[in-house]
Amino acid sequence: MIALIIVAALIVILALYAVSVYNRLVRLKNLVQEAWSSIDVMLKKRYDLIPNLVETVKGYASHERDTFDSVTQARTMAKNAGSVQEKEAAEKNLNQAMMNLFAVAEQYPDLKANANFQQLQTELSSLESDTEKSRRYYNGTARENNTLIESFPSNIIANMYKFEKAPFFELQNVAEREVPSVKF
After folding, report:
1. What is the pLDDT of residue 172?
2. What is the three-class DSSP state of 168?
3. Can you state the percent helix, strand and coil of the chain, rounding each to 5?
4. Comparing 170 with 36, which gets the higher pLDDT?
5. Biggest alpha carbon distance in the chain?
6. How many CB atoms lie under 10 A from the CB of residue 148?
7. Is the per-residue pLDDT at 83 higher than 80?
8. At residue 184, does pLDDT exceed 60?
9. 1-10: which pairs have CB atoms within 8 A and are 24 or more residues apart?
10. Which pTM does this prediction carry?
């Protein structure tokens, strides 16, 4: 009789542990999705700001058509990217196009003094900072999620219910990890 009670108690303990791990996996999956949504919001704000910046520079440097086209094309690709990996690649291209745009802007002293351009530059810098914070939060929640999915014994429950690891959102090139510095 005592052995039966001990076995029943062990089964209850294991069941409670399994429910606890499952609930934690669900919570972490939802945190990863929330964090990705935060990145999307920041990037949308950035994508909305870029056309204003391009138009401001266009007024001073209308002969730099290739640069404007590449920024517009990179913005469209970034805006339409779906997965974390696609967004990562598109952001890399957009960052490069934006650096080229700022290089063009640097050649025009009147543009550098333009209050509208300065305001757009400040807003973009602020958005870059907020986006970096969102990326860190996303990567932190992805790390927690992935650790739980890969750790024993929680990996058994994760595999049973087909929980998947979340990809990290990071830039491949070390130089791109820093916010581009624009000096006017």
Report:
1. 57
2. coil
3. 80, 0, 20
4. 36
5. 91
6. 20
7. yes
8. no
9. none
10. 0.75
